[in-house]
């Protein structure tokens, strides 16, 4: 049987191998292309991150400049105010997460920045032409070069901004009238030596004085007795043995002065000290010794004497010149129509209380005008419920003579009196007609024409003269304890001191609360209400919001400080070659 033999040429293997090679080339090309795309994408991401780091460096540099450039010790401040040109590197470690607990803006990224200053003579000349002295006017360009780095990729941007450096006018209230001693809760130029003394057997509510927050200033210092209750409470951390030490006084409940919560206690001549019986130890005899040479608290310190202008205190002529309302019956006879006698009939058949030859500023309303409400229909509306009669104090009012004041007050302003201010009851602030906060400042100055006393002035005093009012409410009687503890809201300066004027047998129960501050040249606790509490409040901030111009000197005064400011507009922004 014959077998057939076919010839095999190997074409199938060729085609298979060719197909494999083609597919391999295609796959390799795709892989190469994809790797290139991935690499380009990585480079793009790195480049964007580097650019973001560079731009963040610009913003961080601007933040650093704006928050630190007004410091005369800052290198940028020195460069701009003293040099024609220069450059300084800026620390941007916070962007990299190297400062505190602030995370890095981009983990793995880094930034570096440099600030370059170039003074612009033409712009500076324009400031000089506007009236500024040549040695204080400076303007030029700040150029910020910021480089961002991320995974070995660098991008750098350049931002140019305009910088001004000007000496500025003294800030408010350095050259303006306003709240006297705005940083102090209590400001005393002279205090009677017995002002904070506790009588050994004064068990019927000995007099106390408290200041919360604000500074306390006593030019000549004083000695303050400590009662036992104060030693166990506010002064506990200031004493070595508060539980064993003994206080002054029979009851140990009240009296002396509580300044433990003041921000600081200042004096010029003699220190402010405390007096108490100190525990000397079990093996010492006597066990207790009276000490009076310890500073009152750890915050007691000696300071330089304050000039009047430093505490916003000026002469009567200055206040008169700045006043938008002036009442002077002596120079303007027609003003005598404002002077009158104010009389109050006492409840329970008591005698009448009178304020003679005063200009009345009565801020209470009329209980008859109080709208009827269900809660008041069976109640007893009083004059305090009607706020339509509030005393307006906008601007500066100067009055020569005595003033009687009590009730609601609204507006932002100062009441300067060359005479005495009689206070009959509460002085409460009421929002003004626009709903904004009100602020009252009372400045009582001595009338040097009739008062030349060296120790016991007769004018320039704030005198609390309480009274009852038989027409205070619908029932026609006054609560027997009304006005026993008045609340005074405002800042008060009495050149002649603060006094209580009453012959009431409840005199030892009459207290006073001041929300603001109190300053005086003559301080004698023996003539004041029994307990006085001052809760410091800076009314100067509200006074400064007034549209009234309190500027004492209208001429421009330049301080020794440059005010550096960066204009908002960017002169240019561009990406440049990396050089940092």
At a glance:
This protein folds into 3 domains: 46-170 and 560-576; 184-302, no CATH class; 316-511, no CATH class. 16% of the residues lie in helices and 34% in strands. The protein has helices at residues 11-68, 75-82, 121-129, 228-232, 316-322, 374-377, 540-543; strands at residues 85-90, 109-119, 137-150, 153-169, 184-188, 208-212, 215-218, 222-225, 264-267, 272-279, 288-295, 300-302, 325-327, 340-344, 353-363, 391-392, 395-400, 402-410, 412-418, 421-430, 439-445, 461-464, 487-494, 497-500, 512-520, 531-536, 558-576.
Features:
580 residues; alpha/beta; 3 domains; 12-stranded parallel sheet; 7-stranded mixed sheet; 27 strands; 16% helix; elongated
Distance between the termini: 95 Å
Determine Rg (CA atoms, Å).
38 Å
Spans of at least 5 consecutive residues whose pLDDT stays below 50 are 168-174
Q: How many distinct domains?
A: 3
What's the count of strands?
27
The description of the largest β-sheet is: 12 strands, parallel
Can you give the helix content as a percent range? 10-25%
Report on the structure:
With 580 residues, the chain is of the alpha/beta class. It has three domains: 46-170 and 560-576; 184-302, no CATH class; 316-511, no CATH class. The protein has helices at 11-68, 75-82, 121-129, 228-232, 316-322, 374-377, 540-543; strands spanning 85-90, 109-119, 137-150, 153-169, 184-188, 208-212, 215-218, 222-225, 264-267, 272-279, 288-295, 300-302, 325-327, 340-344, 353-363, 391-392, 395-400, 402-410, 412-418, 421-430, 439-445, 461-464, 487-494, 497-500, 512-520, 531-536, 558-576. The strands form four sheets. Strands 5, 6, 7, 9, 12, 13, 17, 19, 21, 23, 25 and 26 form a twelve-stranded parallel β-sheet that branches. Strands 14, 15, 16, 18, 20, 22 and 24 form a seven-stranded mixed β-sheet that branches. A hairpin with an 8-residue loop joins strand 14 (340-344) and strand 15 (353-363). The longest helix is centred in the N-terminal third of the chain and has 58 residues, at 11-68. The relative contact order is 0.13. Residues 168-174 have low confidence and may be disordered.
